[in-house]
Write a structure and sequence with these properties.
Distance between the termini: 41 Å
CATH class of the largest domain: Alpha Beta
Structural class: alpha/beta
Number of domains: 3
CATH topology of the largest domain: D-Maltodextrin-Binding Protein, domain 2
CATH architecture of the largest domain: 3-Layer(aba) Sandwich
Radius of gyration: 25 Å
C-alpha cells in the first residue's frame, strides 16, 4: 500500500463513508473511490463492504488499521517537526509549562526575561509533563518546564528547582499563626484530604507511604494537577497535599501549609533540545525560571511552617508529577 492508499483507508475507517472521507482529505468523492479501488486491486482482497450504515470494514481491514494508526502517528510527528522548523516559529521563544506552574511562576519568570529582552516574542503552551517532553523532542518548543525528569532521546533534562510535598488547609480563624509543626505521614493517613491522582508518579509515591499505615482507608477526592487540588482546598473541600512550589505561589493569608515528614522531594526540570540551547536568549530564559523557583523553593512554604530545605537539599531521585 502506498501512502495515498493508507490516507484514504484511514479516512474511511475513521468516518465510515466515502463522502465523509473525501471531506476529511479535501478531495472529491470519485478520487477517494478510485484510490480505494486501486488499493484493493493491489492487495487482492476487499477492505470494505457497503451496507445501509455506510462502509463496513472487513476483518483484514481491522487488522491493517491497527498498524496504520502507528504509521499516521509517525507521519503526524514528521508534519509537526517540519512545521516547527519554519523561520517564523524559530523567531519566537516557545515555552511549554505544566498547568500548576503556568500562573504566578510563569508570570514572574517572564517579567525577569522581558526585563532583558523587552522586544522578544514569546509563545506559551500549557501541557502535561509527558506532552512537553514530546513537544521538545519534536522541536515544537525551545524550553519545557516540567515536574520530574525524563529520558526521552534527544531531550536534555536539567533540574532548576527542588521542592517537596506539603500539607495545605484553610485557616479557620482560630489557627495560631505561630504554629510550626510538620505534618507526619502517619497523621495524614488518619485524615480525609484531596490527594494527587494515583496515575501521577508523585501521587503514587505518596499513596505508597500511606498504604503502610493500617489507619489509611483511602481518599474520597483526588485531583489531576496540584493547582486543581489547591483550588479545591480554597473552595472549602478540605485539606490537600501539593508540592511546595504550587503552595508557595498561592496567596497565604487564608492557607496554613505544613511540611510533610518524611520529605517526598519533587523536582522541577527544564527540558531542551540542542537547537533550543543554541538560541542567544536561551540562558536568560532558563535563568529566569531558576531564579523564580528559588524564590519559593528556597524558603519555608507560605504560612507558619518552618524548616524548608534549600533547593537541591533533598536526596534521592524525585518522582515525576504533573
Amino acid at each position: 500500500m502506498r501512502i495515498k492508499h493508507i490516507e484514504v483507508f484511514n479516512a474511511i475507517m475513521l468516518s465510515g463513508s466515502v463522502s465523509a472521507a473525501a471531506r476529511i482529505l479535501n478531495v472529491t468523492q470519485p478520487a477517494v473511490t478510485q484510490t480505494l479501488k486501486h488499493a484493493e486491486q493491489q492487495l487482492g482482497y476487499a477492505l470494505f463492504v457497503r451496507d445501509k450504515g455506510g462502509m463496513k470494514p472487513t476483518p483484514e481491514a481491522r487488522q491493517l488499521h491497527l498498524r496504520a494508526q502507528k504509521i499516521f502517528e509517525q507521519v503526524d510527528e514528521l508534519r509537526r517537526l517540519a512545521l516547527s522548523l519554519r523561520p517564523d516559529h524559530q523567531a519566537q521563544f516557545r515555552v511549554a509549562i505544566v498547568p500548576s506552574l503556568s500562573t504566578n511562576c510563569l508570570s514572574r519568570a517572564l517579567a525577569l526575561f522581558k526585563a532583558r529582552h523587552p522586544r522578544s516574542a514569546v509563545s506559551i503552551k500549557i501541557l502535561h509533563s509527558d506532552q512537553i517532553a514530546q513537544a521538545v523532542a519534536l522541536r515544537e518548543c525551545d524550553l519545557g518546564i516540567v515536574y520530574g525528569e525524563t529520558d526521552v532521546p534527544s531531550v536534555e533534562t536539567e533540574v532548576v528547582g527542588m521542592g517537596h510535598l506539603v500539607w495545605v488547609e484553610r485557616r479557620d480563624g482560630t489557627t495560631p499563626r505561630a504554629e510550626s509543626a510538620d505534618m507526619p505521614i502517619g497523621e495524614i493517613a488518619t485524615r480525609d484530604f484531596i490527594c494527587i491522582d494515583k496515575d501521577d508518579l508523585v501521587g503514587k509515591a505518596l499513596l505508597g507511604l500511606l498504604s503502610e499505615s493500617a489507619a489509611f482507608a483511602g481518599t474520597r477526592l483526588s485531583a489531576q494537577t496540584y493547582q486543581s487540588a489547591l483550588l479545591l482546598t480554597l473552595d472549602g473541600f478540605g485539606p490537600c497535599v501539593v508540592e511546595s512550589f504550587t503552595a508557595g505561589f498561592a496567596p497565604n493569608a487564608s492557607l496554613l501549609c505544613r511540611s510533610i515528614t518524611p520529605r517526598i522531594p519533587v523536582a522541577v526540570s527544564a527540558l531542551s533540545s540542542a537547537e533550543g540551547r543554541r538560541r542567544a536568549d536561551f540562558d536568560d530564559m532558563l535563568h529566569a525560571f531558576r531564579t523564580t523557583l528559588a524564590q519559593v523553593g528556597g524558603r519555608a512554604p507560605p504560612g507558619p511552617a518552618a524548616g524548608a530545605e534549600q533547593p537541591g537539599a533533598e536526596t534521592g531521585r524525585p518522582p515525576q508529577g504533573r
